[in-house]
Amino acid sequence: MEDIKDSIKESFLAILPVSAVIILLQIFLIGLPFEKFLLFLIGLLMVTFGLMFFLMGVNIGLLPVGDMIGKALPKPKKKWLIIVVGLLLGTAVTVAEPDVRVLATQVDEVSEGKITSTVLILSVALGVGIFVALAMVRTIYKIKLPYLIMPAYLLVFLLAFFTPETFVPISFDAGGVTTGPLTVPFVLALGVGVASVMRKDESSSEGFGLVALASIGPILAVLLLGVIYQ
Question: Please, which pLDDT band fits residue 205 given cuts at 50, 70 and 90?
């Protein structure tokens, strides 16, 4: 019951600022026709309820399941299994990420079908999956985060020189949209769960940094896609 109350409260607090700004603009500056403004209010109500149900789903289902999977994976003592499951879950959860689909649709429209939404979604998802798997390797073998992030970004900047200009901004947008409301809670819970078992004599905060790594994957994937399209 407490989770439901928190979800309702978070939804209203998230929607309130943008609603207040738009209503003030409507009154003092824009002056949209009443029909248009009414559609905005209806849409606002739907977004509020949608966000409320989404947050409830995250708190009730995604976070606990991600944490339980993370804690269960190390029990068979098969390191390869943790890495493979990280790859599969990272890929699958990104395919379901709404922000990724919005970006892919926009790119498909702007490129007039040259870069299809399916190709972009699969590329971004695979990029996230590979780097979630790499994050599992980091947790298992106690690799310091900078040792993975710095070479990865050096590779990003190197690839940017060989990729068509149009792919560079798309790649960084792809890195941004993967840190969306579906991917982040699940991936974070998974990372913290694995770290709490694999590195229990150390701080479970070692499970963090996973999202930072995961967001590099789609950047590299789209830049490589640009090299292929070239």
Answer: low
